[in-house]
């Protein structure tokens, strides 16, 4: 599970494409899944302001890979 720490550009590490794709997967060769904390995806919008709304926050996490994000996204009408 990625942490909540913010990285360069003010993006929380649990939604940072550079950290999760480039470093974790490409440089370190991680092949597993990442799982977000329960409120981490919603907080991309409500706390950090790096997503315009909850749907955008889910989409951002889905694009970089998150098991919990996929579960939450299925509950949103626009993903049905």
Uncertain runs:
69-80
What's the order of the H and E elements?
Answer: HHHH
Distance between the termini: 26 Å
Instruction: Give the oligomeric state.
Output: single chain
Characteristic key phrases:
80 residues; mainly alpha; 4 helices; 46% helix
Describe the model.
The chain is 46% helix and 0% strand. It is mainly alpha-helical and 80 residues long. The protein has one domain. α2 crosses α3 and α3 (54-64) packs across α4 (67-74). The model is unreliable at 69-80 (pLDDT under 50).
Give the SSE layout.
Elements: H1 17-27, H2 40-46, H3 54-64, H4 67-74
Helix pairs in contact: 2-3, 3-4
In short:
With 80 residues, this protein is an all-alpha fold. It contains four helices and no strands.
